From TrEMBL:
Organism of derivation: Salmo trutta (Brown trout)
Keywords: Methyltransferase, S-adenosyl-L-methionine, Transferase
Keyword Transmembrane found: no
Superkingdom classification of source: Eukaryota
GO terms (BP aspect): methylation
Molecular functions per Gene Ontology: methyltransferase activity
InterPro entries hit by this protein: Methyltransf_16 (IPR019410), SAM-dependent_MTases_sf (IPR029063)
SUPFAM superfamilies per record: S-adenosyl-L-methionine-dependent methyltransferases
Name listed for the protein in its UniProt record: Methyltransferase 21C, AARS1 lysine b
Keyword S-adenosyl-L-methionine belongs to the record: yes
Amino acid sequence: PGEIGEQRTHLVSDCKQMASEALDRLNVWEPSVYYTLGKESFFIAGYEICIRESLDSYGALIWPGAVALSQFLENNRQQVNLLDKAVLEIGAGTGLLSIVASLLGAWVTATDLPEILPNLTFNLSRNSKSRCRYTPQVRALTWGQDLERDFPCTSCRYDYVLAADVVYHHDYLEELLATMHHFCRPASGTTLLWANKVRFQSDLRFKESFEGCFNTTLLTELEEGDMRIYKATARE
């Protein structure tokens, strides 16, 4: 009982830390961003992007990884050219990263849990209409479940898979890795771009498993908040 109580205390502490990050991150990441309750606005890719948030769910908050990877894509277009590319985002949340990819000319499919989709769809529609070459799509995806049925490898092929702050204190890290591997199989030609802040020991353990499945390159490391952005392709 003592050990279980201690684990629960750590879990509550971790959750509070992450919620605090979501509210405080803009002081670190982007001075040109302004914040009001339930709404954030960004100036990326030449457009003002307005995001509706909710404090009801982790998936309805913008995490620093999404901001960092969005800015990386905007500032490194020659290194990562998304124009006319097929892009899938897993764990899209509020949709900021998918919106930026759409504004940069990609054909985007944004995925997340079913309960996240209404707000995700709202944000994508609000920020992409009459701005993008392709209308971004929204689909439900539960990590590790019905992947081949819902996203068959023969027809669902992507140039890039984007993932931002998908590794944190949850119990689905194995399913997440399986999902990444499903979309980035050997010889698929798919490149995975993953941005994540290192928070817990589980993050480091996941990274070890990740590097066992993928050829991994560290694209950039931001000292503020231990943010890292990786490029990866499946091992043969």
